[in-house]
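Troubleshooting: if your tokenizer reports a length mismatch, compare against these two reference records.
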Amino acid sequence: MAVPRKKVSRAKRNTRRAHDALKRATYIEDQDSGELRRPHHIDLKTGMYRGRQVLEPKDEF
């Protein structure tokens, strides 16, 4: 059975774990509608993507 030869130091362990943290989702303000949306995603409220109409706009209730 494989057994570690030496104890892993706190610095080495924490350096390895530094990339495991979850990042908060990024949102940008849409230039046309002013709504918040994810970058590189369709604006569902207007149906626009990169200046083109891709989807039918959602009806407001």
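Reference record two:
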Amino acid sequence: MSAVNHTDPLAYLAAELEPIKASGWKRARTLRSAQGPVADFDGKRVVNLSSNNYLGLADDERLKEAAVKAVEQYGAGSASVRTIAGTMSLHVLLEERLAAFKKVEDVVVFQSGFTANAGTVAAILGKEDVIVSDRLNHASIIDGARLSRAEIKVYEHADIDSLRAKLEEAKSRRTLVVTDGVFSMDGDVAPLPDVVAAAEEYGAIIMVDDAHASGVMGSNGRGTVDHFGLHGRVHIQVGTLSKAFGVLGGYVAGSRNLIDWLHARGRPFLFSSSHPPAVVAACLAGLDILENEPERIERLWSNTRFFKAGLTALGFDTGKSQTPITPVIIGGDTEAVKFSADLFDAGVFAQSIVFPTVAKGSARVRTIVTATHTEQDLQEALDAFEKVGRASGII
């Protein structure tokens, strides 16, 4: 056992950080402009391929105007949790609108997508239950599963035979099958019809985290459940207001009983102050745009096809991506960090993703195209990828 440094009990962290820093880790770049397709990071103008601003709403004038009006009418903050004095009419309206949008009985809004996932899984299960989870599910699902104290069984990524085997092991116990709709690091889509069919066969609860499908897939961005025509067959849908909506928050959509239970037992909902009025009003404005401007989603996918085709033609490995999330697989952690840094010098911000976020040997730079990138922006980015790729020997 190592000795305790009584002067600085956290001194041991310096040694723990050494291998992390050696791989090239450093603190995040600083955004000095609005989040846009071209933005100022660290004082440099770059084509921005690192944000989740899929539809370009983060800087939309209508969202900004709605936020300002809400501050003038309701103030800067709620100064309370939802269950005491922090439920405003704006919160209720947003939840009603989202429930109609998602075609479910009810919705509850959480402070973030992370708390929506973690708080829901932890609230609905206990130590006698079983969670069957895709190996590549988001960290918030993993943390919620641990908090629930349920037994966790992990099935191989998108592998229905593996899923069925885990369901067979859990037979006769209350079971939750949970999967991302779109996987955030690889950009692939869950085989949701097959996942749902297997879960139904075993009488399991079905939960889908649609964070990266919200505003991206399905009619007007309703998500993967809508995309696959599975309304009424998925018990719990989690969405985000922080990505395509361009603002902040997460939500859970489902039955009235589920939402009442989360009001009563969802710990992040119970013990965190509610969203400021500006945030809620901006989310409502974003929802208006999703419902009325499907052409934004069409532009997102058109840009995605253009950029993917360009990367493929250059010879980059983009894995199994099917969505605007397109990884460029580099391999080693150090090499991926350097590739990202060289891209930045060439005028493109595409963040490196390394172990433990992804498996060793599969480090990459992750790119996300948005609806508001122009073809010129994307060609500029492709030119930078070609320059850095050839200089590094990746292509």
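Descriptive notes for reference record two:
- The two ends are 48 Å apart (CA to CA).
- Residues 295-314 form the longest helix (20 residues).
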